[in-house]
Amino acid sequence: MIRITELRLPISHAPEALEEAILKRLNIQAQDLIRTDVFKRSYDARKNVALAFIYTVDLSVKNEEKLLEQFANDIHVRPSPDTSYHFLANASQLKSQRFERPVVIGFGPCGIFAALVLAQMGFKPIVLERGKPVRERTQDTWGLWRKNVLNPESNVQFGEGGAGTFSDGKLYSQIKDPKFYGRKVIAEFIKAGAPEEIRYVAKPHIGTFRLVGVVERMRQEIIELGGEIRFSQKVIGFDIQNDHIAGVKIEGHPDLPANHVVLALGHSARDTFEALHAAGVYMEAKPFSVGFRIEHPQSLIDKARLGPHAGNELIGAADYKLVHHAKNGRAVYSFCMCPGGTVVAATSEPNRVVTNGMSQYSRNERNANAGIVVGITPEDYPGGPLAGIEFQRALESKAYELGGSTYEAPGQLVGDFLAGTASTDFGSVMPSYKPGVHLTDLADALPAYAIEAIREAIPAFEKQIKGFSMKDAVLTGVETRTSSPLRITRGANLQSLNVKGLYPAGEGAGYAGGILSAGVDGIKVAEAVALDYLSQ
User: Fold this and answer.
1) Are residues 492 and 154 in contact, defined by beta-carbon separation less than 8 angstroms?
2) Buried b (16+ CB within 10 A) or exposed e, 76-86
3) Dihedral sign, CA of 150, 286, 177, 85?
4) How far apart are alpha carbons 389 and 399 in whole angstroms?
5) Does the pLDDT of residue 417 top 90, yes or no?
6) Which ranges in 121-238 belong to alpha helices (H)?
7) Are 372 and 454 in contact (CB under 8 A)?
8) Is beta strand 288-297 parallel, antiparallel or unpaired with respect to 284-285?
9) Are 341 and 369 in contact (CB under 8 A)?
10) pLDDT: which is higher, 69 or 308
11) Structure pTM?
């Protein structure tokens, strides 16, 4: 196939215009064009140019080799890379069909794809998920949001689908992906009911409600292929013999023998991290970020980012990505920006407050929100691999107190935050966080260096987005779970450095950041597990 890049068309173009542009670009006739697939579609919405879609297209044509020779010097006409997924192994290749089934701990994006690919290769994995099936979990999550009642084992962090279920469902990442595993992730989501457009739009997303059905259908495929999903099974210990994993200990259930275990834990499985550390599994502290959620009217962001194109339904709600390097040496940046979304209660532990952002597929809520977070390093929380967890817990407990000890989140208007005075009344922006926002002074919610850096960054961001420092915008605290505070280090074979058969994977192990990258890491680890089976 041939790939054409930088095909530019007016955003309101007719469906047949793309094919016409291809024929014109290659100077061929319609009968020479066999097949067309849109690989990517982005848009150019700069204020001083005509609104346009920019396409990357893969196509089959007659006499492809001859045509490529004609465009040998054109960087925008090249052979298409092979983006299809190729399985590396199959259980049918094993010398014996009597093998101990692989175990996957956690059923978030990483665990789902590790289990799915293992099942597709015939290895019939057993998945242990401490939380509940996604629909039951959704009811428990609403229990916190609507009734201030937390279920520590079934919430935004724990349960089928992982933390990504209650997010924007973003499916883009900056990871290097030379084998196009990301296309496998996208293809499986589409097969499970996600919208077809996520295959080609520049910043694909699914949205929370749609993710529920998608996750259920992926679970069903794993089961149909011989896999097994066991809910409400919390792993509390590990049986390690002669530096090799031999099994896992499950609360309220018999021990499960296993010599291949995928740790797809997610970044909030703090008690499991503690169990791994107690068992001697090598891990190390890593950098992460802490901060607040900020909310503006989505219309303000649309106008600032899209100018005269704001409100165009073909573009949708505008997003942003911001970075500022503060004078005190701290980097401040926007994190997990959710256009037309809501700020959600995301704690998994009693008497703590954690914020996160979420959007539905439509992205049509009144406010835009994003984390405004400050990078920190292990030097800020010395004390070993688990010190970052205690650092997070201290901030989350303080936020609980500042919010009134009811699971309401502490909040402050941006104008008051910059001035260093407590807020007493909301202005034009009403916060979306449930159970509610308790206005206060956020100066004590984060370390002084973080407050200083954010106070410097917000006016700096105003230069990029007019209105960003509006006095009525609302800050809500705290955002602490941007990524895992530790890494369960692995070697080139993707196994733990000191425990054979143990495969740290995804966000919790420090190897991913978001749905797409976690899914890709799940695929990589599944392949590593399969190849290890074949080597025995």
Assistant:
1) no
2) ebeebeebebe
3) negative
4) 15
5) yes
6) 134-147, 181-191, 208-224
7) yes
8) unpaired
9) yes
10) 69
11) 0.94
Q: Which of 417, 325, 321, 415 is nearest to 371 (CA)?
A: 321
Q: Tell me the H-state helices in 199-348.
A: 208-224, 270-278, 298-306
State how far the Cα of 63 lies from the Cα of 507, in Å rounded to an integer.
Answer: 46
Pairing state of beta strands 502-504 and 342-345?
Answer: unpaired
State the amino acid at position 328 in one-letter form. Answer: N
Two tokens at 248?
Answer: 């896992």
DSSP state of 170: B
- Helix H, strand E, coil C: the string for 497-512 is CCCECEEECCCCCCCC
**pLDDT over 70 at 194, yes or no:** yes
CA 85 to chain CA mean position, Å: 22
pLDDT (tens digit, 9 = 90+) per residue, 136-187? 999 999 999 999 999 999 999 999 999 888 876 678 777 889 999 999 999 9
- Cβ-contact 260, 526 below 8 angstroms: no
Long-range own/partner contacts, residues 171-174 (CB < 8 A, 24 or more apart): 171/198, 171/204, 171/205, 171/206, 171/515, 171/516, 172/202, 172/203, 172/204, 172/516, 173/513, 173/514, 173/516, 173/517, 173/520
Q: Nearest to residue 14, comparing CAs of 48, 47, 53?
A: 53
Q: What are phi and psi of 126, to 5 degrees?
A: -105, 125
DSSP 273-298: HHHHHHTT---EE--EEEEEEEEEEH
| Residue corresponding to tokens 């039951």 | 136
